[in-house]
Amino acid sequence: MTVLDRLYASGGSEVIIETLQITVGSDVYWLTKGWEDITATLEDGRVVTFIACGIDIALPARNADGTQDLKFAIGNVDGIVSTAIRAALDDLSDSYLTYRCYISTDLSAPTSNPYVLAVKSGYWTATEVQITAGYMNVLDTAWPRYRYTLPNFPGLRYIS
Description:
- With 160 residues, this protein is mainly beta.
- The chain is built from 2 helices and 9 strands.
- It has a 9-stranded mixed beta sheet.
- The longest helix is centred in the middle third of the chain and has 11 residues, at 80-90.
- It is globular and about 70 Å long.
């Protein structure tokens, strides 16, 4: 049994540390749930410092409905997060969220593969920011993705 399995089953002296990497264009924000900043090693070997903040994370459900979303809320007391999220919502095509989980006794690597999700929607108030990020919704995707329509291909009108 791994340490992570034991933690999920019965607890122990270790603590699970949840982290978020918010990437908006070239800006990257490193956040962790809790009261103390942590310095941890990413899966690619880089060492980064995650800034502690008031954050609440709801992981995606493990189901087959095609809409597996991660939702999170961040305290917006200093206003830095709302500026980043406003930029992310203005340009959804270039905004990503990476969720990593660490164990307090081993910050040398995440405990499992990180979730990399695209920012879908969100809003902010004076006190908090709420964001929804998720994988591509396969059920609402047309196939083929590029549609051959008359405005783009007028010659289709004459094919019988």
